[in-house]
Automatic annotation (TrEMBL):
PROSITE patterns: DHFR_1, DHFR_2
Protein family: Belongs to the dihydrofolate reductase family.
DHFR domain boundaries: 1-161
Protein name (database record): Dihydrofolate reductase
Pathway field: Cofactor biosynthesis; tetrahydrofolate biosynthesis; 5,6,7,8-tetrahydrofolate from 7,8-dihydrofolate: step 1/1
Keywords: NADP, One-carbon metabolism, Oxidoreductase
Upper lineage: Bacteria, Bacillati, Bacillota, Bacilli, Lactobacillales
Keyword Oxidoreductase assigned: yes
Gene3D superfamilies found in the cross-reference section: Dihydrofolate Reductase, subunit A (3.40.430.10)
EC top class named in words: oxidoreductase
Length: 162
């Protein structure tokens, strides 16, 4: 099962200069809870934006067209078919985690979407790609808690492919 997992502001912004444009601990916790002991897939720019840091207790796949790219401790794959073959062999969910190019290339292959929507606008340079929302059904929404560490209203949305 392939699940796209991302956070965006209310206008669809997902990145700023290779990083997240906001600090929202609830979303980081949600990301960890969903991906722990599973596989995450990200593009080279996203991986490098994280300082090439591997997240603990997760298998990381870096998707890049660069056939010479090395990512110590991560699997490196080069195209959609290679990713889909890997996903089919897994017993646990595999999470597509960004960036925009990876989402655009693979969103149609996803079975589910987990989207965090932050009720604010931020400055940045990367937006989630346009998708055909008629292909998706909203299962449920969980409102995030606003507190001294989580200053922005936010909600976690769960979709499945129709």
């Amino acid at each position: 099962m392939l699940i796209a997992l991302w956070a965006q502001d209310q206008k669809g912004l997902i990145g700023a200069d290779g990083t997240l444009p906001w600090h929202l601990p609830n979303d980081l916790k949600f990301f960890k809870e969903q991906t722990i002991n599973n596989t995450i897939i990200m593009g080279r720019k996203t991986f490098e934006g994280m300082g090439k840091r591997l997240l603990p207790q997760r298998t990381t796949i870096v998707l890049t067209s660069d056939r010479d790219y090395q990512a110590d401790g991560a699997l490196v794959m080069h195209d959609r078919e290679e990713i889909l073959t890997y996903v089919k062999q897994q017993e646990h969910p595999v999470f597509l985690t960004g960036g925009a190019g990876v989402f655009e290339a693979m969103i149609d292959d996803c079975d589910q979407l987990y989207r965090t929507v932050i009720g604010a606008e931020f400055n940045g340079d990367v937006y989630f790609p346009e998708i055909d929302w008629t292909q998706w059904k909203l299962d449920h929404v969980v409102d995030g808690i606003i507190d001294e560490k989580n200053h922005y209203p936010h909600r976690f949305e769960f979709y499945h492919k129709k």
